[in-house]
Amino acid sequence: MGDPDTVIVEIERYHRELEITELIFRIHFPDMPQNKVLKAITPLGKKVMPYFSKQ
To answer: Which residue ranges make up each domain of the chain?
Structure first.
């Protein structure tokens, strides 16, 4: 959890230390308003995923 740069650093750490190659993100929880879900998905799709698509 955190801003996109923090998420990128943590994913890289997981990959380096645990040798993971896949992650599952749980973003939507019961009774969570759609605007909060979109607020979480948007930076993931615009900044985090493109960063790893380049590699």
So the answer is: 4-53
How far apart are alpha carbons 8 and 11 in whole angstroms? 5
The set of residues, in sequence order, having a beta carbon less than 8 Å from that of 10 and lying 6+ positions away, is 2
Q: What are the mean pLDDT values of the chain's consecutive 10-residue runs (55 residues total)? A: 92 96 92 93 94 85
SS3 35: helix
Given a contact cutoff of 8 angstroms between Cβ atoms, the answer to whether 52 and 4 are in contact is no
Amino acid letter, 29 = F
The predicted structure's pLDDT at residue 41? 93
